[in-house]
Amino acid sequence: MWVYSKGPELSLGESAIPADLKQYTTFPDAPVPHRSVQQIDLVPSLSLLLGLPIPFNNLGTVIPEFFWRDKAGSAYREAISLNSRQIHNYLDTYRGSSAGGELDAVWNDLQNAWSKITATMAKDNLHQHVAYTRLALETCRSLWAQFNVGLMGFGLTILVLSVGVALIMYQYTAMAGASWDAWVEGLTRAYLLSAAGGATIGATAWMPSQAFATFKGISLLQFILFGACLGSSVSVLSAARPKFTPSWTLLITVLHAIAFFSNSYTFWEERIITFFLLSTLVPPFLASFSAPTTHLRWRILFFCGVFAACVRLMAISTVCREEQHPWCSIAYFAGGTVAEPPKLVLALALPACAFVPWYINRQLATSKSNNSLAALFLPYILAPTLLAGTAYWILEWLDSMEFVADTVDFRLARTVLGRSGIAGMLIAGGLLWTLVPGESESKTQVLVLGFANAFGSPYLIFWTISLGIVWIATQLTGQLTLGLATVALLAHLELTDGVRDARALQLAFDTNPSAALALLHSQGSLTAAPTLAPGDTRVRFAEIAPLALLALHAFYTTGHQATIPSIQWKAVFVLSPRVSYPLAPALFAANTFGPVFLLALAVPLLALWNVPPLTPDTPGSAPSALSGAPALMLARSVPRGSAAT
Q1: What is the pLDDT of residues 238-280, one digit of tens each?
Q2: For residue 204, what are the contacts with CB-CB under 8 A and spacing of at least 6?
Q3: Per the domain annotation, does 443 fall within a domain?
């Protein structure tokens, strides 16, 4: 470390400072020890040099070279006295807190070290001050910076087993058929018994395990929980053998997991996710060329293009971690000392409020499912909610940038907009979705001539309720990326539906060409939603993986990183000018985790989009539709397990 002073010298020199006050370290292959400084010591040293108080919870020791300015070292004596007193006050305060029990085992040692300072002239006993600050640092570091190898092993074991469990559940839901109910009943009984047995074994093994250093500090409850998880996972894995079928999407998932083996300086997950998302379009793009009809071919290619364009446009919005500078530029904010949105975002914010409901209505209109519930919800509830959320953040920007006179305060208007938007979406939107269409007492039988996305449309409206809430809690740039994510989601649904139709039509032509041709002509229009595969509701892993990646992509492009500095605290004050519970934590969760939650909530749409109504006893319909949930767990558990290692 090299420190330069434009004014007077910081110290008299190395020879004037007692050697036992300085720390030396012998570095690898070094012939002699060298002077070393711990990073934590910089904070108290620089604070006092700048005339600031030492941060209350800092445990560093002032660096003597900065304060030894005369032969007696009077400035250093004053600095180290302030330093040790600050640490003592912090430990006293921490001891009196709810977590102070952590210091019970070491409190006597700390008090003895402090009594040696108070028993003598504090300013004349430099070594006692330094010894106390170092003891406090080493003690707290040993308590708070522990890595329990046993617990880490427990966690990694459960993560690895979760991959196999998710794979088993996905494979069996995809092919269970009529035996689904019997398989679930038998498996439930087996894993409950196995969990109870594993918990018993864990409780029994806890006492003898304490003789090994690896398991020191692991409680009885943690052993019981691990045993229960291990037993239930093994019972599921023993019910069926996992089968790995090589596929393009599985390769992308594995590559995503392998990327975590790199360190954070070379691994930029937000960048490679864009590449992986675009790579998932390769199979449907190739499938389009073998589609039996021109309409299906162009439909698949068109929505491939829409999905790719949305992903690329979302990637423009970026925030950076500290270690990514100077190679990363922030596009989420315009820059400067105030977190303001870019000018282009301000220009597009209001049009986006109108575009998102219009585009949803336009997509539903292709299957003639934009009537009844959608006709009321989209223009009269969703659009005003999105407008309220955007207007809130525009007023917040005007307040922050002080574009208006000091006498004008938009705080009340912002609170009204935030509360009315969320209350309207939850109350009016929830009631409308629940009550429309209402149940009828009539028993009249009708002949269904078309199903018009009977399941997909209502669930999409239900999904937009969450979209409206997350929209209000998201800043302007994030609102644009949420709109693009919504368009990408609908493009993925139409793309998946087109590939399914092409696959079903090709199979029909291969098995019974005349019947397939007659069915195709009976639809009356090539632009109508095909109905060639009424019983195929199976959700494939290749259809789920893009949604899992899109969820992460939305997380990063709405201004978030896996770091505390990226937290957008402004979202906490959407409903109130002050922090209020439980509204503040709920808004924080909606802002931070909302984008991921939205795309996870959209998984059932893959099983409901443009599928015909089936009777409850239709063989295989329930497990095939449920396969989306374990597929999503599988798509996330593989990278998560790799990241944990």
Answers
A1: 877 777 777 888 889 888 888 888 766 567 888 899 999 999 9
A2: none
A3: no
State which amino acid sits at residue 466.
S
Q: 522 vs 365, 422, 530, CA distance in Å?
A: 20, 46, 10
In whole angstroms, give the CA distance from residue 205 to residue 322.
44
Render pLDDT for 173-221 as a digit per residue (tens, 0 to 9): 766 555 667 777 888 888 899 999 999 999 999 888 888 888 887 888 9
Residue 27: strand pairing partners = none
Separation CA 342–CA 393 (nearest Å): 13
List Cβ neighbours of 114 (8 Å cut-off, separation of 6 or more).
88, 132
- Contacts of residue 243, Cβ cutoff 8 Å, sequence gap at least 6: 171
Residues 227 and 365 in one domain: no
Q: How far apart are CA 528 and CA 511, in angstroms?
A: 23
Of 312, 260, 273, residue with least CA distance to 555: 273
Distance CA 359, CA 610 (A): 17
Q: Which residues pair with 25 in a beta bridge?
A: 34
Q: Do 503 and 402 have their domain in common?
A: yes
CA distance 341 to 335: 8
Same domain, 137 and 119: yes
Question: Quick check: 530 pLDDT over 80?
Answer: no
Which of 465-481 are b and which e, b meaning 16 or more Cβ less than 10 Å from the residue's Cβ?
Answer: bbbbbbbbbbbbbbbbb
Alpha carbons 392 and 80: distance in angstroms, whole number: 50
Higher confidence at residue 140 or residue 325?
Answer: 140
Structural domain contains residue 260: no
The angle that helices 149-175 and 220-239 make with each other, rounded to 10 degrees, is: 30
Report the number of secondary-structure helices (H) and strands (E) in the chain.
24, 2
pLDDT at 160 over 70: yes
Q: Tell whether 587 is covered by a domain.
A: yes
**Domain-located, residue 80:** yes
Residues 537-559: tens digit of each pLDDT? 578 888 999 999 999 999 999 99
Domain that holds residue 128: 14-144
> Distance (Å, rounded) from C-alpha 243 to C-alpha 240?
9
The domain total for the chain is 3
Same structural domain, 556 and 596: yes
Cα–Cα separations (whole angstroms), residue 229 to 62, 160, 225, 435: 48, 12, 6, 41
* pTM recorded for the entire structure: 0.81
